[in-house]
Amino acid sequence: MHDDRLVRTQQALRSQGLDALLVGPSADLRYLVGYHALPLERLTLLVVPVDGEPILVAPELEAARVRESGADRFADPRTYGERDDPVRLVVDHLRACGAASHLAVQDRLWASFTLALQAALPDARWEPGSQVMRELRLHKTGDEIEALRAVGAAIDEVHAQVPSLLRPGRTEAEVGRDLHELILQDHDEVNFVIVASGPNGASPHHETGDRSLQDGDAIVVDIGGTRDGYCSDMTRNYVVGHAPEGYPELHAVLEEAQDLAVAAVRPGVTAASIDAAARDHITAAGFGEHFIHRTGHGIGVEEHEEPWIVGGNEQPLAPGMAFSVEPGIYIPDRYGARIEDIVVVTDDGVERLNLRPRGIVAGG
Ligand code: ZN
Ligand code: ZN
Ligand code: ZN
Questions:
Q1: Count of structural domains within the chain
Q2: Which residue segment(s) compose the domain that 155 sits in?
Q3: Which of 149, 187, 295, 344 is least surrounded, with the fewest CB atoms within 10 Å of its CB?
Q4: pTM across the whole model
Q5: Ligand 1 centroid vs 205 CA: distance in angstroms?
């Protein structure tokens, strides 16, 4: 899957008049060469010159992990010992490629490394690496969409098992531990587990706590993990016993809002218009002040990436963009609800990657 990504990176460098891209441990590094580098105080840096051979500078003690990742198929590993200067390796390669004057550096490279590189190349001009990576990451290829579809199906399966975990007396943390194991059945990693019961549901990023589930609770379950390098992220709302007063009505509004937003997705419309489709409906129903976050975020090798589905983002949607549609309504001290599916923009519309029913599900 990584085969042509460095070639496309070099094309992006060329079209922007840049000499090279420097990438430290990050989602960009995983995206480009499949290497999960540890964020160490020792420098790990992928160097992609516009013309010339990509190299991966890494500490000698990480050489085995580099080989296991298969990254050496894409970039020549240049390992260094404890007494060597890795910045020298980077600079020598850039100079050998005639690529040392206009550089892009990955946005989240630690300042300690960026400053050392800048000190070693005092005449170079520097740009944020996102300028190079943005377009590549934003437009998913067929293989990437297939990976997102597979991880979407995997998290659908976990949600199918949630009702059996929800019983009065169990704590959010107990349910969360079960979910952790269920996610790992068909994911490589758990990224987050949110089990927000009763009033905790009114806090969108409440994870889990010691609160015990009670009859009459609404429960927001938002879970995600990584499978073959791509992320899932999906939210449904459950109740134990009777739904609390007003909740079914609130949830019906939310379901309609989520449907309207998904139905609005197609090439050419703006990200902002998808947010508006959900928000206008929720506002018209009188819950506008309780929808306190954007409608969604892009997803891929990271849980949260571009495009941001938010008011003011005039980015036009295009085929291959993948993002969440997750409106929520949060009533302080009472309950909350959020419905979240991942969708991908197709040539003429939208495909949902999460297919479980979206209504309130009874637990127990
Ligand atoms: Zn979030
Ligand atoms: Zn989520
Ligand atoms: Zn999300």
A1: 2
A2: 142-362
A3: 149
A4: 0.93
A5: 6
